[in-house]
Q: What sequence folds into this?
């Protein structure tokens, strides 16, 4: 029989500890707050366990709880450890229920939002959204992250793995990163079903085995002087941009995004900043006399810093402008990117310039990381000589 009664407890106001018996006690604070404590001894150590406050926990409830905890002690079970384990189990169950409401799509959207500012440009985020919307969401959209299995991933990849290997590889990689993020957030456990090495590589052929090599239609280098003669007759700005693209062997987006502050006409150097380069590294482009003559002949527009300003204020020409110019010439057999191949073929077949000079002219990233670590220069002078030779070749008089 306990020593305390409800009426007595209600009237207690003096701070102190009031024993009920068998380790159960009521602690009254100076603030008047009253709480139940069970004192016990386990493995030779004296410990205390809170059982809640009065009047939320009534006397009879505190005694009942004390009996339950003492029964655990008789079994050599630490009631504090048991309560913590129960709390964690309940919390885990709650998280599991919450996870069921978080779909793969919602995790993907959170991932894109979190990384958007760290990606090089807005186009990258758009590519993420487009590829997941087109290929992954039809299968995974309404599944919660925990439910996604290898079979689901294969259902996404199998239709495109053979016919669109590069796209399929990107989709796989993006699914893997989304599911990794879900695991970090505690929304799933175990193997990532989209992981390649040691997992999907046992179920799908390597991309290199199925990749269809796509060559951009390129003009044979021997036909370049005649082609250059034709586009030099045109006065439209898109043809001027086409000429600079050919003379510098740069990518179309690098040319169209060029601004006057990147170009030093006196020194004959065009410095493309890292954020506009595919390799995210500054690229110095030597400008030949033909390229400089072209640039010096362009009109600069007030309020638009672009070398090739477009119709919209402050914007460059559309990235379709040069391709449309090719179509107006009835050259649907060519692409602008193909002129880089034309330049590379010319350099390999009709000059003695070393491979590394040609590759640097195209701003190609070195695949050999060890070689790249030791090769830090950009061979500017040698590239300058090569680009001069290229300009002389493509602008030579044509018999056609």
A:
């Amino acid at each position: 029989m306990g020593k305390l009664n409800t009426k007595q407890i209600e009237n207690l106001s003096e701070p102190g500890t009031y024993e009920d018996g068998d380790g159960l006690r009521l602690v009254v604070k100076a603030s008047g707050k009253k709480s139940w404590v069970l004192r016990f001894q386990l493995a030779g150590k004296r410990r205390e366990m809170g059982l809640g406050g009065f009047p939320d926990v009534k006397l009879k409830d505190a005694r009942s709880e004390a009996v339950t905890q003492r029964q655990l002690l008789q079994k050599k079970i630490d009631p504090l450890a048991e309560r913590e384990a129960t709390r964690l189990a309940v919390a885990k169950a709650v998280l599991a229920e919450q996870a069921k409401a978080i779909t793969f799509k919602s995790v993907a959207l959170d991932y894109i939002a979190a990384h958007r500012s760290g990606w090089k440009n807005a186009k990258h985020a758009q590519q993420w959204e487009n590829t997941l919307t087109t290929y992954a969401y039809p299968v995974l959209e309404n599944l919660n992250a925990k439910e996604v299995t290898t079979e689901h991933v294969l259902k996404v990849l199998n239709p495109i793995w053979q016919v669109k290997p590069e796209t399929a590889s990107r989709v796989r990689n993006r699914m893997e990163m989304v599911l990794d993020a879900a695991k970090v957030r505690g929304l799933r456990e175990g193997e990532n079903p989209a992981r390649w090495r040691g997992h999907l590589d046992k179920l799908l052929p390597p991309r290199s085995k199925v990749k269809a090599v796509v060559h951009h239609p390129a003009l044979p280098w021997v036909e370049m002087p005649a082609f250059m003669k034709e586009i030099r007759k045109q006065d439209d700005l898109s043809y001027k941009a086409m000429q600079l693209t050919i003379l510098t062997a740069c990518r179309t987006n690098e040319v169209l995004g060029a601004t006057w502050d990147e170009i030093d006409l006196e020194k004959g150097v065009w410095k493309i900043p890292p954020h506009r380069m595919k390799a995210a590294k500054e690229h110095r482009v030597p400008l030949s006399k033909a390229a400089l003559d072209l640039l010096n002949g362009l009109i600069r527009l007030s309020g638009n810093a672009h070398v090739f300003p477009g119709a919209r204020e402050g914007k460059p020409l559309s990235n379709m402008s040069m391709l449309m110019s090719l179509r107006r010439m009835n050259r649907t057999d060519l692409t602008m990117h193909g002129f880089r191949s034309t330049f590379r073929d010319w350099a390999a077949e009709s000059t003695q310039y070393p491979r590394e000079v040609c590759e640097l002219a195209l701003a190609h990233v070195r695949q050999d990381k060890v070689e790249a670590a030791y090769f830090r220069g950009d061979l500017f002078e040698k590239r300058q000589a090569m680009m001069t030779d290229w300009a002389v070749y493509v602008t030579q008089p044509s018999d056609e």
The two ends are 117 Å apart (CA to CA). The chain has a mean pLDDT of 88.
